[in-house]
Structure formats: structure tokens, C-alpha cells
Amino acid sequence: MAKRFVDTSLWKRKWYRCLPPKMKLFYFYMITNCDHAGMYDVDLELAEFQIGMPVKEKDIDEHLKEHIKVIKDDKWWVKAFPDFQYGELNPNVKAHASVIKILTKYNCLVTVPNSLDRVQDKDKDKDKVKDKEKNMNPDILKVSAAHKKTIGYREWQFKRHISEFQEYEKDMRIDFGQYWTEASGNKMRFEKEKVFDIGRRLARWKKNNFNKSETMSNFRMDSTGKFYIGFCKKCNKSDTYSQFELKLDSRCCQSKLMPKKQ
């Protein structure tokens, strides 16, 4: 059900106050039965039935001709409707754009205050943008070879690729990115690997991170209290690992890490 604003001061306005009762009702009927641009599909027979009074076209022409524009025999436009409902029409607002389209179609936009200028200004702005883009030096949009070599750019590119794997939870992707972009000198952890397939690494990360709280609590800390002691499931060799590294495989055999010897 469509809802719209109603001008409560309408009853105080002289032109409306002086209308015959049935014309007051008909005008109110139109503003509640027109479309969102103020276009009323004329059906006087239905209007008479719903208002409960006879409504004749000659009476409408006599009392409301200043407030209605006849588009064609079966379509009238309530002139004040768009201005009261929307104020100045803005083509950048989705709802307004639809109204502007309808008013332009029936050559009514010029009668809505400021709206035609706003639409024309938008077209001028588009032309300015096009001219600016046409004259723009495309080289300024290119990333320099020197910048591509910086660790900041490489980290951004790596994390951008991680973000493409939307099937994994956001927090998991963030942890994964933070771990693998940890830098030592000018190289990040993932760059030290001979082969690094982000999709496969993420899948393994998720698998090893399953039921994280239980897994973490099973591992003992070393004497520094900063690292966990993990055992290679394949060769039982122990080593110290950070919180993030526990989610990965052992350094020796690339096997699953266990909290104790098997």
C-alpha cells in the first residue's frame, strides 16, 4: 500500500476552501490515487462510486483547471504533487530519478521548480567528467614498477587475493593474512615458501584450526611462556611454535602437529 505526505494546511488555503464540497473530495481523491509522479489515470465513474457524489468533467474544468494538467483524455497530472512530496528533485536520488523520467516523458518537468535545472546541471557535470577523463594522462593511473616492489604493495596484493575466498569466515582470513605477511627484513613469510597456493593453504588452515579452543588447550607452553611445544605426528620430533603456527604442519615432515608424542 502506497503512503505519501498530506499537506495539513491545504484546508486553510483560499483556493481549496472556496471549492464546492464534492470538488474538495475529488482533489483529495486524486492526490491519494495518482502515481508517485502525480499522474492520475482518469476514471470518473469509479471516482463517483468511491466518493459517493457525482463528479462531472465540466465542474472539474471550472474549479480545478489551474491545479491539473490534462496530458490526454485518460491521464491528468496534479501539478503541485511532486513539489510537495519531494521538494527539489535530485536525479542522483533513485526515487526522484523515476519521477523525473515520468515527468520528462509527458513534458511536465519544466513546471516543477528547480528540477529541470538540476537535471540539466547533472548532464553538464557528466560532460565535464567525460572531458576530464578524455584529457587525463592514463600513465598517472599506473602503479610504478618501483612501488610494486615495496613490501606494503606486496602485502596489499596478497591480502586482496585472500579476500576473494569468501567461503571462509572473515576472522579466519584476517588471521591467515596476518600470519603469512609477518615480515623478516624485506620478505614476508609467504614469500619464503617455494610454492604458495592461497586456496590450498586456506583449506589446510581451516582443517587444522577446527575446534580451535580444544586444540590450543592441549599444547604445553615452553619455558619462555611465549611458544607452544608441538610434536610431528610422523616422526615425533618436537619443536616450538607460535599460536598461528599450531594451525599449520610441522616444519620437519609437513605433518600434523600433536600436543604429545604418538
Can you describe this structure in just a few lines?
This protein has 262 residues and is mostly helical.
> How many strands, what sense, and barrel or not for the largest sheet?
3 strands, antiparallel
> Which word captures the global form?
elongated
- Mean pLDDT across the residues is 83
Helix content: 40-55%
Instruction: State which percent range the strand residues make up.
Output: 5-15%
Task: Note the topology.
Layout lengths: L13 H4 L3 H11 L7 E3 L2 H8 L5 H8 L3 E5 L2 E4 L2 H6 L7 H12 L9 H21 L9 H4 L2 H13 L6 H11 L2 E2 L2 E2 L9 H11 L3 H7 L9 E5 L5 E4 L15 E2 L4
Antiparallel strand pairs: 1-3, 2-3, 4-5, 6-7, 6-8
Helix pairs in contact: 9-10
Q: Describe it for me?
A:
With 262 residues, this protein is mainly alpha-helical. The protein has helices spanning 14-17, 21-31, 44-51, 57-64, 81-86, 94-105, 115-135, 145-148, 151-163, 170-180, 198-208, 212-218, and strands at residues 39-41, 68-72, 75-78, 183-184, 187-188, 228-232, 238-241, 257-258. Strands 1-3-2 form a 3-stranded antiparallel β-sheet, with no helix packed on it. Strands 7-6-8 form a 3-stranded antiparallel β-sheet, with no helix packed on it. Helix 9 (151-163) packs antiparallel against helix 10. The model has no long low-confidence stretch (mean pLDDT 83).
Name its key features:
262 residues, mainly alpha, 3-stranded antiparallel beta sheet, 12 helices
